[in-house]
Amino acid sequence: MKNIAVIGVGYVGLVTGTCFADLGNRVTCVDVNEERIANLKQGILPIYEPGLEEVVRRNLAAGRLSFTTSYAEALNCPEAPAELVFIAVNTPTGVDGEAELRYVRAAAEMIAQTMDHPLIIVNKSTVPVGTGDWVADIVRNKQPKPIPFSVVSNPEFLREGSALSDFMNPDRIVLGSLDEEAAQKVAQLYLPLRGPIMITDPRTAEMIKYASNAFLATKISFINEIANICEALGADVKEVAAGMGYDKRIGRAFLDAGLGYGGSCFPKDVKALAHMANVQGKHPQLLEAVMQINADARRSIVAKVRALVGNNSTHLNRLEGKTIGVLGLAFKANTDDIRESQPIDIIRMIQADGGTVKAYDPVAMPNAAKVLHNVKLCADAYEVAEGSDALILATEWNEFKNLDLARIKRIMKQPVIVDGRNLYDPPAMRELGFIYRGVGRGY
Ligand code: UDX
Ligand code: ADP
Q1: 157 lines ligand 1 (CB under 6 A)
Q2: Ligand 2 proximal residues by C-beta, below 6 Å
Q3: CATH (one of 3.40.50.720, 3.40.50.12780, 3.40.50.150, 3.30.365.10) for 202-443
Q4: I need a surface site. Which of 19, 251, 308, 357 has the fewest CB within 10 A?
Q5: Quick one: which residues bind substrate (predicted)?
Q6: Which of 138, 130, 133 is nearest to 110 (CA)?
Q7: Distance 56 CA to ligand 1 centre (A)
Q8: 238 C-alpha vs ligand 2 centroid, how far in Å?
């Protein structure tokens, strides 16, 4: 059992802190957002993550998990002074594509000014290579009097929607530090999970995170490029991915063609890695192609809608007078996150083309309502379909897998479905009388 402080209660911090508490540690989470902390004290979560609420409530009740806005309370509690503090604040994209570090800086400064005993500072946020050294400099410079500390980089690999099981069943734990003893102390926290633990230097650990996410993003862009070619040549990308996936060197994971990658990590991390390369005078050609193909995946969905129901005009407003229904607003299923969401981008493109949009998502609508304008948010998929000229399947929620498609066909103005997630079977859709387009399903 260790005493741990976690800074930031977003997706990363809340999952990390809660899971460490569930493993028997005493965890205090601190955040500058007072409303989030007040709610969390009552077991009300700021995010939707399957299974998380129950584990938060259980650990709150057991007294292993607590929430505060006070760094002093989190770090220096007299009965349980923190031995380790995890930085898990957000690192949004800056104007040039770089990861913005102002929240990390603020957290490091607060730690330096508050700590009254030696600490291990663990960086969980995805930060540019070299940030570990930078955090150490900030803490050293901002401490009112010198107190020993170490910095360990410990990148997170949690997927939203399956973050709890990803935490509890890690493919690997990566730790980067120049202080072997500090790295070993962090490693001890993870021993119950029985995943492989790799200890390396901080820059390499930081790079492992970027390289991993960039590689997965590359797999997605690769299969989207293949999908494009499949469409032209009459092959089926789903079968192609299955056939490729049998090769252990390739693997089937992350070969789903569709709308390209969205979310708070891949878009930001690929951009940030390319930015780091450019700053060093390297030309990240592959990463640039990955980003271009990803942007095209969204455009190509709108192009399909235009081709199927658009007005025969060379001008803008090719979707004027048309109602397009969008099923799903989150960047993937099982999350309410709409950061870099493909459906939201697609909706804006349709609106720019003069189209009217109706949409539905099982959990992301409150978040989407904050950023969308003039979109009719509906109670379910059927309300979206009613009177629509075309439907776009944009997020692969389970509840869209078993829709009453015969009913959908009856209530749509035109039976046109553009399936951005390849959820449905093309011959079955044609059999039902739909004009159906998936992604890369050229037969
Ligand atoms: C990702 C990483 O997977 C995780 O390790 C961590 O570093 C945070 O970032 P996350 O963003 O939650 O997790 O989602 P992920 O499941 O990786 O999907 C990212 C995007 O790629 C989603 O928009 C998803 O729809 C898309 N995707 C994924 C595809 O288009 N095709 C695929 O085959 C897989
Ligand atoms: P992520 O997806 O990386 O976890 P989120 O945006 O979901 O990012 O959450 C980040 C959290 O960090 C937010 O709750 C935010 O209020 C919090 N935060 C940002 N800066 C600080 C800071 N200096 N101290 C404490 N919490 C912070």
Answers
A1: yes
A2: 7-13, 30-33, 36, 88-90, 103, 106-107, 264
A3: 3.40.50.720
A4: 251
A5: 157-160, 209, 254-258, 262, 332
A6: 138
A7: 24
A8: 38
Say if 3-200 and 202-443 have the same CATH topology: yes
What 3-state DSSP class applies to 187? helix
Q: Whose CA is nearest to atom 34 of ligand 1?
A: 254
SS3 325: strand
- Site to probe by mutation for ligand 2, drawn from 89, 142, 156, 269 as the one with most ligand atoms within 8 Å of Cβ, is 89
What is the phi/psi pair of residue 21, to 5°? -65, -40
Q: What is the pLDDT of residues 166-211, one digit of tens each?
A: 999 999 999 999 999 999 999 999 999 999 999 999 999 999 999 9
Among the bound ligands, name the one nearest to the CA of residue 262.
1
Q: Is the CB of 222 under 6 A from ligand 1?
A: no
What average pLDDT does this structure show over 237-250? 98
Residue 428, Cβ neighbours under 10 Å: how many? 11
DSSP-derived letter for residue 265 is S
Domain ranges of the chain: 3-200, 202-443
- Give, in order, the Cα–Cα distances in Å from 136 to each of 68, 82, 153, 154: 24, 18, 11, 15
E runs forming strands in 74-184: 84-87, 119-123, 149-153, 173-176
Beta pairing class for 119-123 and 65-68: unpaired
**pTM of this prediction exceeds 0.70:** yes
**CB of 159 sitting under 6 A from ligand 1:** yes
C-alpha to C-alpha distance for 326 and 311, rounded to whole angstroms: 19
Whose tokens are 């030309």? That residue is 283
C-alpha of 372 from chain center: 20
Q: Tens of pLDDT along 266-315?
A: 999 999 999 999 999 999 999 999 999 999 999 999 999 999 999 987 66
Binding residue ranges for substrate: 157-160, 209, 254-258, 262, 332
Tokens of 413: 């103005």
